[in-house]
Design a protein that fits this description.
single chain, about 240 residues, alpha/beta, six-stranded mixed beta sheet, 12 strands, globular, Pesterase_MJ0912, Calcineurin-like_PHP_lpxH, Metallo-depent_PP-like, phosphatase activity
């Protein structure tokens, strides 16, 4: 099976449509969404509708929860709160019903889907270090654990008692290995690469591939400004490596 894993879309329909095209070209059988569908960007309704129509399994992130039920998540970032207030006004009761119907954790025999730290979902810890990965591997037996939240593409591999971080864009899966996979961000990547990011996993051809997709990030950034949303979210889309 070939699975496309998307996360942290953050109301960026321009990035999402470009990723959709790439997913179709790569002939993915399933699409999993790891949450933070909305907030920050200018097109929350469109992104929610796309996820409802196209994703086979969807879980929610803290920004989805905060927009629909702010008392359930504690956010301190004033820009995120401002954007959430604007986002709330763009959505309908049906949209909120859909968000509230989503779980924040999903598990099958072969894989786990979580938005954040899988050992204690809901803490919204940024799992980016090898030390944290080693601890987290002790908390699950499934072969794959997909997570988001960090807005980065990160692959940790457990091979018997050895845990390491794999830096290649495409990794060949070997037998008896376990994987912690941060899928990256479709709509707000934080690695100074403005291209949209997602992850492709093929359990028959046995590979994990981090995909990056070109899209009109200038248009997405302009839409944020034109909507009156905080400029910081527009600026992030345009950040590039020096």
């Amino acid at each position: 099976m070939r699975i496309a894993v998307i996360s942290d879309i953050h109301s960026n329909i321009h990035a999402l449509e470009a990723v959709e095209k790439d997913i179709r070209e790569k002939r993915a059988d399933k699409i999993f969404c790891l949450g933070d569908i909305i907030n920050f960007g200018a097109h929350p309704k469109e992104t929610l509708d796309w996820v409802k129509e196209n994703c086979d399994i969807t879980i929610k992130g803290e920004h989805d929860i905060f927009v629909s039920n702010p008392e359930e998540v504690f956010l301190t970032n004033p820009y995120a709160i401002q954007a959430a207030d604007w986002t709330y006004d763009q959505l309908s009761k049906e949209d909120f019903d859909y968000i509230n119907s989503l779980e924040n954790f999903y598990e099958e025999a072969e894989f786990i889907l979580t938005h954040d730290e899988p050992s204690i979902p809901g803490t919204y810890h940024f799992l980016t270090s090898l030390r944290d990965a080693k601890e987290t591997f002790t908390c699950f037996d499934n072969r794959f654990c997909f997570y988001g939240h960090a807005h980065l593409q990160i692959l940790f591999v457990k091979d018997e008692d050895n845990v390491f971080s794999e830096k290649t864009g495409r990794y060949k899966i070997k037998e008896n290995q376990q994987f912690l996979i941060c899928a990256g961000s479709v709509g707000q990547p934080r690695d100074r690469d403005p291209r949209a990011g997602y992850t492709l996993v093929d359990t028959e051809e046995n590979f994990i591939e981090f995909r990056r997709v070109e899209y009109d990030f200038e248009k997405a950034a302009a839409d944020i400004i034109n909507a009156g949303l905080p400029e910081v979210f527009s600026n992030i889309l345009k950040m590039k490596k020096d």
